[in-house]
Amino acid sequence: MALSRKPKTQSEQPTNVEDFIRGGGEETPPADAKVGKGQFANVRLRIPTDILDEVDEAVRGRRSGMARHAWIMEAIVEKLERDQK
Question: Quick one: average pLDDT of 29-52?
Answer without folding.
Answer: 81
